[in-house]
Amino acid sequence: MPEIKVTPLGAGQDVGRSCILVSIGGKNIMLDCGMHMGYNDDRRFPDFSYITQNGRLTDFLDCVIISHFHLDHCGALPYMSEMVGYDGPIYMTHPTKAICPILLEDFRKITVDKKGETNFFTSQMIKDCMKKVIPLNLHQTVQVDDELEIKAYYAGHVLGAAMVHIKVGSESVVYTGDYNMTPDRHLGAAWIDKCRPDILISESTYATTIRDSKRCRERDFLKKVHESIERGGKVLIPVFALGRAQELCILLETFWERMNLKAPIYFSTGLTEKANHYYKLFITWTNQKIRKTFVQRNMFEFKHIKAFDRSYADNPGPMVVFATPGMLHAGQSLQIFKKWAGNEKNMVIMPGYCVQGTIGHKILNGQRKLEMEGRATLDVKLQVEYMSFSAHADAKGIMQLIRMAEPRNMLLVHGEAVKMEFLKGKIEQEFSIDCYMPANGETVTMTTNPSVPVDMSLNLLKREMALGGPLPDPKKPRAMHGTLIMKENSLKLVSSEQALKELGLNEHQLRFTCRVQFQDPHSDSDTLHRIYTHLKSVLKDYTIQHLPDGTVMVESIVIKVSSSAEDANAKVLLLSWSYQDEDLGSYLSSLLKKGLPT
Amino acid sequence: MKLYCLSGHPTLPCNVLKFKSTTIMLDCGLDTTSVLNFLPLPLVHSPRLSKLPGWISKDGSINLEKELKECAGRVFVDAQPEFCLPERELLDLSTIDVILISNYHCMMALPYITEHTGFTGTVYATEPTLQIGRLLMEELVNFMERVPKAQAATCWKNKEVQRMLPGPLKDAVDVWTWKRCYSMQEVNSALSKVQLVGYSQKVELFGAVQISPLSSGYSLGSSNWIIQSHHEKVSYVSGSSLLTTHPQPMDQSSLKNSDVLILTGLTQMPTANPDGMLGEFCSNLAMTIRAGGNVLVPCYSSGVIYDLLECLYQFIESASLGTTPFYFISPVANSSLEFSQIFAEWLCHNKQTKVYLPEPPFPHAELIQTNKLKHYPSIHGDFSSDFRQPCVVFTGHPSLRFGDVVHFMELWGKSSLNTVIFTEPDFSYLDALAPYQPLAMKCVYCPIDTRLNFHQVSKLLKEVQPLHVVCPEQYTQPPVTQSHRSDLMLELQPPPMPYRRCSVLSLPFRRRYERVYILPELANSLVPSEVKAGVSVATVSAVLHSKDNKHTLQSVPKPPPVAPSKKRKRVIEEPPVTLSPKPLLSGAVPLEAFLATLQKHGITEVKVEETSEGHILHLQAEDTLIQLEEDGTHIVCDNNEPLRTTLRDLVLRFLQKL
């Protein structure tokens, strides 16, 4: 029985370092290759030794697919391809291909230059790795090899995020990456067609949440920012350079304009300008409204938002600063946070999910005293607000996607075990399909039951369809017969006669002749006629003919009568039939042995 | 399979393919050369045009001075220009299931087909094709509606009258079917029927046919189409290019193994090398500017203009044209320039790489930023105050019959310092200029047509090897003006099947197989046996289900089970139900081996008699005969059913079942 195997190397009952191995129809695919923000040691990257203990991965993987540019989905890619070793194809969408190397370079700089780690991938490695990338277009069917094909769907979440449909023969898997089922201010909603995959591998970050309407959250966000500014406080919004940042910038930009506010808004990294450029050039990946109006007004040209300089952090008076990274685990956002944490007038708004181990995660859990490097502790006095602006599907969205794709099995990754458990129950109950949630390194095996495609002779098909009539009769299904010829990789279904011809085989006729004797005081021709009427009454559904040459034919079975020379009443019936009529011939010979009814 | 040809224009095709149960329109080209028979529509009142004399036949019997005007010996219709539509009578357009668009130039007739004909299908196009196609339609509508002309001219279309007119009006065909331009409302309605597709996306039509667009390398989002089922493949090639300009390169390999390849949209300028033309364009432009004259470039608002601007971008400094203003005037100029920058996925590799940086893929962004290139919706408004001469103006329409170009022809035509440079190949430049004669302005003809030439196409066809090629009849003979150039035609073996307007071709197809699916349960129950090395057969008895053009085979539902011990009894009591007939047999029964088998089963007294065809075995103890021949076995056995069935099964051991 064919089977599909799924093994998460990362993101199994966890958020971070997404990396899922799928074996389908003899092909091995790696989905995402991310890093974990919560670790600084070996656990930062997926454990590739699972694939092979020694040597390169090229021989073990048919392709690698990256769903989007977030580091927890692509952060381990140069390590995997250049340091462990993989030379096969890597697929990602155009925006991901454009943005991913920038974030990787950032990540490298923070790790190597700031933290002084060695044995890390180099800038050159990032470049070499990106050379192996083949860009994917939405809905394009990419033939990885003769059997394996992949197709990308729009996933929302961030610019260029994609879900992938992976297909070998009639077996298929869909991997969602991270996705969002509701359009936001800059991106559209995820969409997939009714592709009925054998397995749907879905993220489940917000497995238990059903979020209130986006409008409410936006209003809340603006209110909090506004109040803080009014009382002269500083607002820090830790974000990742691309994604949520643009959505919130659009939000604040329009609000500032409407309310005619004067407090400065800054964006911290030099990436901003560049980031906005990406949005302008990849405008086809944004939501419909922005796409429609971009000629008149490009939403990514901000009037109120200026570049930030680190000296501004000490400026008096209110301000709003977007700073990277988004989980307060390093970099500028952390520096600013340290500066502003002591003042209760200030506020930090966490607009996204924070993984365990990060400062973001700690303060969201209410921790007010933080141990910093060295022995220093930091008192957190500023207001901490959490607003879920992460563009992940919530429980409702996940269910919606299941309804769209109609998978046969469900597999959850990229979420916390407890929450997954809850969602798993809900899915199994509502859709009556199996739902799995493997931990890292744990393999789920599912048997599939694919139909077998064959090429049927058009003659045979047309004949069958004509005989079958316009509508099938469910009570009396018509059986068709044919011969399946299996040659190399081709399967052809033809009529038996055609099969003989095509294979160059002779037909071997197998015939049987049987003599049946009984007493019947009639002339030969009368006996024959009596046989005819008798059979006529017994065999209702058969063609029975009384031929002028003195034979009765039942289908193609020949019956002749003669009487013995000695006794004119002792009749000898000669039955002759071919193997194809074996059932009927055998039946007739037994029937006639009993004689004729008087 | 049939092909209905609704357009005779080889580069603006409109064909309908009936394939399996689907009706597919391939492109929807609008033949706009008909507008050359009309007077230009000036944006501002033109005393010259309004003073042209009306036309009266020489003998004075026909007076059409209201409808027809004479200019430099040619007669023009003085009415709103009209277009020559695809044929609408050849088949019922409401039966069309889908329309496939290959590039934005080949969709301009769409509103005529999708509106008011009962069309209820879907139109498939790529995103750039839709967006730029919309711009071109919008521009066309705008050009027409900006200068409404109330007067309709119909008298000249009268057959008797038309016969008397001077050429080329006399020879214009189907003039009664010519139509005025559609409205914006019709454009919007037509384009709302478009479903977007990406290159290599596979789209299923009714489960019967799969269509897929391929990059054709000609313009942004331009595509060729594959229309195929599991066993038949039709390639539709329309407007393809192998030159490295801005679009993604042409996908050639996917065209392989076609049964039929429909070839349209070859270059209209087979003798003009696009690179050479580009060079000539630049040098003529520079020369005119240096001499203090203005340059007018009549062009479409998208396509080659991007390449012209890119070429100028590199040329401006070296030719010290840095201070010369470049104007691009069109109601959709801004949109066209903006849209060109956002289709990274559809661009050639070099341009994609720029987007990754991120930089705009086309250098006209920089020309605009540095104020070297300015764009305006029309000559009215801002343009009139910014206008400085000498300058270069890019504007439409290339037919010179409507659009802002008419104004510049009137304005600059009188001075020999100025130059008009024709780059679009769609219109004969002499015909385009006819209503402006006499003209002092210099005219340079540099048609840039990047589509495949005959040399490239024959190389391509050699590579992809279609079984049959269908093409417009124009491609099967050299051009009329160059009848000795046998290299300017398609020479193929077998020769291509030519079509013309209103042809209906039967495509040479023999469909022999159809894809069906055997459900797993049935597949598992099949018992294959090897008939020769590498070839196995299995007999299949199944119920066929056909739904939405998909066929599946599943197991025959079992009749209520009968215990095997009772079976014999039942057979006697009731006639057998012929659910599965016995398979055909093949092979031969070898004598020695058969005898040995008989012996094993206790049949020892066998008398073997040789005959001309084989052997007769006489089983003496059982009084039974077995006739063994090369292609047949005959068992004659009386009154001993168990023996007969035993013998039957023994014989079957030696035979293959099909």
Automatic annotation (TrEMBL), chain A:
It holds the Pfam family Beta-Casp. It is found in: Cytoplasm; Nucleus. Residues 16-229 form the Metallo-beta-lactamase domain. GO terms for cellular component: cytoplasm; nucleus. Residues 245-363 form the Beta-Casp domain. One of its GO terms (molecular function) is hydrolase activity. GO terms for biological process: snRNA processing. SUPFAM superfamilies: Metallo-hydrolase/oxidoreductase (SSF56281). Its cofactor is Zn(2+). The keyword Cell inner membrane does not apply. Keywords: Cytoplasm, Hydrolase, Metal-binding, Nucleus, Zinc. Its main location: cytoplasm. Belongs to the metallo-beta-lactamase superfamily. RNA-metabolizing metallo-beta-lactamase-like family. INTS11 subfamily. This is Integrator complex subunit 11. It comes from Crenichthys baileyi (White River springfish).
Automatic annotation (TrEMBL), chain B:
It comes from the Eukaryota. Residues 305-433 form the Beta-Casp domain. Residues 548-571 are annotated as: Disordered. SMART domains: Beta-Casp. Pfam families: Beta-Casp, IntS9_C, Lactamase_B_6. This is Integrator complex subunit 9. Its main location: cytoplasm. InterPro entries: Beta_Casp, Integrator_9su, IntS9-like_C, Metallo-B-lactamas, RibonucZ/Hydroxyglut_hydro. One of its GO terms (biological process) is negative regulation of transmembrane receptor protein serine/threonine kinase signaling pathway. Belongs to the metallo-beta-lactamase superfamily. RNA-metabolizing metallo-beta-lactamase-like family. INTS9 subfamily.
